[in-house]
TrEMBL record:
PROSITE patterns to which the protein is assigned, alphabetical: PHYTOCYANIN
Name of this chain's protein: Putative cupredoxin
Taxonomic lineage: Eukaryota, Viridiplantae, Streptophyta, Embryophyta, Tracheophyta
UniProt domain Phytocyanin: residue ranges: 24-122
Signal peptide segment: 1-23
GO cellular component, one term: plasma membrane
Keywords: Membrane, Signal, Transmembrane, Transmembrane helix
Organism listed in the record: Rosa chinensis (China rose)
Xref: Pfam families: Cu_bind_like (PF02298)
Membrane spanning stretches: 159-180
Entry keyword annotation includes Oxidoreductase: no
Entry's Gene Ontology molecular function annotations: electron transfer activity
């Protein structure tokens, strides 16, 4: 009986820790010079933590896909593309905590601002649903065009946020604990 009494709290804690430790997959959409200011603002507004995964969607209307490079701070500042840490990045796991620098593999595009810095924190403070980078703003003749509205992800409309998964974990642990007491 004593082992069953200990089992429920231990299982609850294990399930809860597992549910809350899930990394997010974050799509970086709109990797174009026209959208570079929006991407920079987007990365500064979001809280990235170790284990999060950035996934680039680099398709453009012309079919040209500018490569993404992970580089050092010095290469980021000078748009040096010859010696990247990682080349042709389409997906990167953000680990360890710190600053990550990404630039276009086409020097002319990097010089025009196609680059982002991502600050990664060591511990998750908010367990929200995955987010997506802003899509390319619609073309207008107005130079001061409004930024595109941030898109919503399917997960933000569902019940798969970290908080919900914590409740599921506690519920599963409770059912298992009751079954062990029978």
């Amino acid at each position: 009986m004593a082992s069953n009494t200990i089992c429920l709290p231990v299982l609850s804690i294990l399930f809860l820790l597992f549910a809350l430790s899930e990394a997010r997959e974050v799509t970086v959409d709109g990797w174009t010079v026209e959208n570079s200011d929006h991407l920079t603002k987007w990365t500064h507004r979001h809280h990235f933590t170790t284990g999060d995964v950035l996934i680039w969607k680099t398709s453009t209307p012309l079919g040209f896909e500018p490569p993404v490079l992970e580089v050092t701070k010095e290469a980021y500042e000078s748009c040096e593309i010859s010696n990247p840490l990682k080349a042709n990045v389409t997906e990167v796991t953000l680990n360890p905590a710190g600053l990550f620098y990404f630039i276009s593999g086409v020097k002319e595009l990097c010089d025009k601002g196609l680059k982002i810095t991502v600050k990664v924190h060591g511990a998750r403070k908010h367990y929200g649903a995955p987010t997506q980078a802003p899509a390319l703003a619609p073309e207008t003749n107005n130079m001061a065009a409004e930024p595109a509205a941030p898109p919503t992800s399917a997960a933000s409309h569902g019940l798969m946020g970290g908080g919900f998964m914590g409740f599921v974990a506690i519920g599963v642990a409770g059912v298992v604990g009751m079954a062990l007491n029978v």
